Amino acid sequence: MSNTNHVEVLEKTKESEAISLKMKSFFIDHSVTILFIIICLIGVKISKLPLFFITSELLTRISRNSFLVLSLIIPVLAGMGLNFGITIGAMAGQIAIIAVTHWGITGIQGFLLCGLLSVPIAMIFGYLIGTLLNKTKGQEMITSMIAGFFANGIYQFIFLFAVGSIIPMKDPIMMLSSGIGIRNTVDLSKNVGIKYALDNLKKVPAIKVLLIALVATIIIYSGIRFYKIKNSKKKEKFITGQYLSTMIGCFVGILICSIFMFHEGIPNNLKMITKIKLPIATCLVIAGLCLFNVMIVKTKLGQDFRTVGQDNHIAKISGINVNKIRIIAITLSTLLAAWGQLIFLQNIGTLNTYGSHVQIATFSIAALLIGGASVSRATIGQAILGTILFHTLFIVSPMAGKNLFGDAQIGEFFRAFVAYGVIGLSLGLHAWRKRVGVKSKLE
Amino acid sequence: MQEKYVLQMKNIEKDYFGNKVLKSVSLSVKPGEIHALLGENGAGKSTLMNILFGMPVIHSTGGFDGEVFIDAKKVDVKSPKEAMKIGIGMVHQEFMLVPGFNLTENIKLNREITKKNLLSKISGNSLNFLDRKKMDKDARKALDTLEIGLDEWAKVAGLPVGYMQFVEIAREIDKSNVKLLVFDEPTAVLTESEADNLMKSMKKIAASGIAILFITHRLDEVIKAADNVTVLRDGELVATRKKEDTNVLDLAELMVGRKIKVTNKLEDDKKNRKDHESILSIKNFRVNMPGEAVKGIELEVKKGEILGIGGLAGQGKVGIANGIMGIYESTGEVRLRGENLKLNNTREALKSGLAFVSEDRRGVGLLLDSSIEENIVVTTMQIKNEFLNRFGFFDQIDSKSIRSHGLKMIKDLDIRCTGPTQLTRRLSGGNQQKVCIARALTLEPDVLFVSEPTRGIDIGAKKLVLDLLVKLNKELGMTIVMTSSELAELRAVCDRIAIISEGKVEGILEPSARDRDFGLMMAGEYRKMYSKEAL
Prior knowledge:
By secondary structure, chain A is an all-alpha fold.
């Protein structure tokens, strides 16, 4: 009797050991993300900003930036690391904007024309970057970064000097008074440009969108599970832990949403949240890109990306044209970045001719890394989560700085170095994680 | 009467810059035949295969003379891709598998089955979806043909080496048009039992009508598996024999033209060593080497002995030396001459008088694009600051002493080369191994670790390498720890042999112990059986 008890106890300790090991590896695997969740929570608390402000600001920033962050995923898949070259894609988008604004085409027509015009430009740029990166295999990240700086030089040359002198152009509003070069800032607002062209197409209260999304999740997820089980040979339970938790999560979400929408007794400052509106067209475009990223992995091209990403040499031996695949990956990324910059600028409303594109790559990459991605692995979920965390920090840090040190400037300063610090820190943490992973395997 | 052949190569001649490497070699393979191609390194096997596959190296050096027929049709293969198209498949010696992919994805690498979708109808086939179900089915079929019980959705990373070979083969036989499969030394990295499985699979493939060209060094395998044997020596066709008309000794003689016998150690030598002090003691030693994990080894190495470490592949024997030298992460206690050795620190290990000849000759062992003499002195230069002219902070390489030392080593170890400045990439396997040993010797170590010293080198060179180890042990009193998959060579050279099973020492045997005991230990059954008896 005592013997069996002993065995049971032993088994239990074994089980708890396994669980603690799992917990440990979970924390190690997600150390970057967890660290930033904690920093964000502290920042939100210290800044004392109202929840309404943070939420609405955050939603704007997500819709503004996530397309750019998502454009980074394909090169990671193809083993080319984080594509700092999306700066060049952003330039392609801006070239299109400058042209379209000059022609005076505004609103959604102008926006679509920008999208169309940036395709050939971005593809040429992408091809050139891809060719360069094929010559410098193994150093893609630093090469694409330097290529970005170099391209910035050419960009400045064209728009500061060539326009108006070599390239004939006359536009007193957009150009400097000397007649040569584009002004530092170009106004894209309603009557002259593409401001809010996509965002204002249709705006829906965010809470309604959330409600619909939750209901849709329940229906679609159940449908997929039902379909899968019907078609698979193995006997599987319909209700698994994951399924159950998703469903419960959805129902709780629906409950909270309906309380916010229909209950009268909620304090006013919380009730404000229902007033937040979501640019639904922009969200659909982003969702479309997510879907595109999911789909492309399932195609032959996606499989080629993955093969090349895993091992260049083997891909070559098995007859894949490695260089071509890498060029396609970079070109796609560049094109998506160009479109991402269009979405970004139509939301901002002014084009900072010589500055808008400069920090795009750094900020997007920082966001992706915060989400838990690494140079060799990145998912859509990580991109979205990273965008949320990164921009929460951006929103709260000036106020947090003011409340802590009595000076908003320090917070402002803080948020600038966060972006660069994050990249360094998360690359360092990734390296550390690898080491710890190796060690824990040993024991 | 004209017999039907899958492959005929007639009077193939090839020279590299006036140096004839193939002299009128002919080769014929029938459908469903296993044809062994035997020969020492440098005998011209690889060149012959390069011609068959139309490798660029052949065409960039002026092509070849002679004719190649596939199915009695004259062909002119210009690239490996063309070779694939006409139905010649190759099972590579080093694996061409993507570790992060599952078996199906690897078997169907770049030959994925796709189905159309809306987008791909517009923009071309590269946007077709993968048809995973069909791919899985095909992969399953190929694996079943080989009778491999692996799941097609398992990842390749973490598979034992032996299985990886089978995945490679599955990929080749999955190609629908394959008529001829070339196995390039497939058993070089396999253990004896895995090799046996491979032989069985080869016979099965042959029975389905695919011809197999089997390149190997292991004579017993030729006898076991092949129907016909072609022996090459120094670029010449020595003989083509039917299996029934030949035996191992005959083939060995044909291949090298000299008898093989490894110097055996004298019995009284062993007795004397019994009471020698131990120089290296290893306690609870663990190494995290992928595929060769060591899980708690206790081992004493006595001064002046040759200790053999044997065992099946994947059991951890290779991990021991790698762990002690700090090449893979390790924990535990290692005492050298009674002093604790710092682990995970290669520099420290080398400084305290250990040296290592790696099993991964071309990867870890050599700087392939450096000369022989540089390879020989580089470690000593780093660790002991020898071969340097010292000018304050600005140390200069002392090329004079390097040259004289290099020449001495080349002479002592009989390294066949054009001179001390030849690049090691151009050397044959056996000579590369000798360069590795020369580098270890330059360190003047107390304990020399040698891992798989004869892997991938031919019988003639094997004997030279093994004799060299014995000579070093006898004349310099060097303690040698030799890891090898080939039991026969351990038994020929070593004083004691430790057999590793599942990352632990299963037992230590005298080389003269019974075959049965070795077999049991390798299978990890020895302790189970004998612990019962002891009780």
